[in-house]
Structures are given as C-alpha cells and as structure tokens.
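Listing S7. Sequence submitted for prediction.
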Amino acid sequence: MPLHPQVQALMDRRAALGFPDNRDITPTEARANAAAGRLAIPSVQEPVGEITERTIPGPAGEIPIRIYRPTTKGPHPLIMLFHGGGWVIGDLDNEDSTSRGLVNRVNAVLISVDYRMAPEDRFPAAPEDCYAATVWAVEHAAELGVDATNIAVAGTSAGGNLSAAVALMARDRGGPTIKHQVLYCPVIDRSFNRPSSVANAEGYGLTTEGMMWFWDQYIGSDGDGHHPYASVIRAEDLSGLADATVIAAEYDPLLDEAADYAASLKAAGNDVTFTEYAGMTHGFNGSFGLIDDAAKACDEAAAGILRSFAK
C-alpha cells in the first residue's frame, strides 16, 4: 500500500525541523538533534504507576536504568527494554512511550537500560551492558518485586538487535531464562544488499547509507560486524531461543532482514510471530498518538509476551 497519511504527515513535520544528516555532524550533535526532535514532536505518554531512575553495576562502571511500574500490586513479570538509535544517538527517553505501553498491557515491571554508546564504546559494550543489566535484575528480583521466571526483552531498531543478542547470550551463557523477545524493526545483519535495503534506501526516514554510518560507529574499522552478537542472524545455532514477536515496516530498509531472521528463528524450531505493517516506516511503533499503528504494534507485542508467560 502507499505510505500511510499519518506517516507522511510525521515525516513532513520532521523534515521541517531542518536537522542535518547524522553523517555530516558529530555523534554528540546527532544525539542533541534527536533529543530536540522528540521535544518538538512529542508522542503520547500513557500514565503508569511509578517511574524511578537509578544506576546499577555494569562491566565497565555504573549503568543508568529507568524502572517503570504498573499501578497494580506485585510481584510482576519483568520486561527488559533496550532503546534504539543505531547504538549511537538514543537514550532513556527514546522509547518512553513504548515502555509505558508495554507496562500497561502486560502488567509488568519494565527496566529501560541506558547502555554504553558508540563510537565512544564500541561493540560488544552495548550487548554486554544489556546482558549484565538483565542478570542484575534477576539477582535483585525480590528487591524489585518481580517474578524472575517470567522475563521478556524488547527494543526497537538497534534495541531490537540488542534484545536478540541478549536472548542469544542468555542461552549461550546458561541464563537467565528469557521467555519472549520483542523485536521492533530490528537491525539483524551487517549487510546492505537485501531488496528492501535497495528499494527503501532513501526517502523514508532511516536510509541505507545512514544505517551504514551507524554500523561504522558501532563496529569501528577493525571490529567484527558479523559476530553473532552483532549480526544475530549469523549465529551458527538459532535453536532453543525465546519466543519472538518480530514487527517490521513496509517502507523500512531493514524489512527484509527482519523477515529473514523471523524465518530463521522459526526454521530452528522457535515460536515466532512476524508481522509487516503496511504503509509504515522504520520505528513507527514509538509514535503513540501520532500513528495509530504504534498502539496496535504494542498490543501485538504485549499479546505475544503474555502468551509466552502463560506457557
């Protein structure tokens, strides 16, 4: 279908802000512009019970986290959320709307992780921080008021990549047991030759050249972009992983890699739901109140998580 009118309207509003391409400025400037863009075009933030912030110990120092709680009494299941932004420009506000939406729909405690960013801290800093935060949450389940037998991971774009990586790491390292992974418009593979990377290369927000830039920041000149915790589809064995909800957008350069990963997970025997949202662009799921399908995608993700928790 054609680009959805709500998506086109949002793209027009963003274009009117006049920010330069990330490739033409420093990562610090790109982060400031991303934050300014969110303030200029805010999404709807559903109320939740409580939001607190703190730091926890990580592999290379303290990791800031934000804890979202529902209005109900616990103990609650746990969702670990890793924000998007190409491993470079995101922060805890990046997926605030998505975080609130999942808390309310799953009736879960959600911990959003402010992992180390590239290029200052390149791969594997980000997935190691996200995995360490997940382990910490399980070890502090009683303090947090969570049921550590019901854990999901979730994230958009680079956050979807990190969610998939943490699911792999948890399997490879003997825990914690993750029951569900929500991968919104995920980065899956350091490869730019799939049909959607060509057809949707520019004109829809995230560009293929922009994605190349993010990968360059993340991996660096001598990094292994095909390591399975970076390009998760390149893992030798994809069996025994958490159930997955993979949500993709029709006009996203990353559409085909998301579809390929969902198919690979399913072929390896995992329980997988894949949905391509027609007329949508990369990261549409965070635009609560601006794009109706954002709430629909959150509904779908929550339903998948709840099915896995009920097993």
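Caption to Listing S7: primary sequence and predicted structure tokens for the chain studied. The domain at 5-310 is CATH 3.40.50.1820 (Rossmann fold). The CA atoms of residues 83 and 291 lie 19 Å apart.
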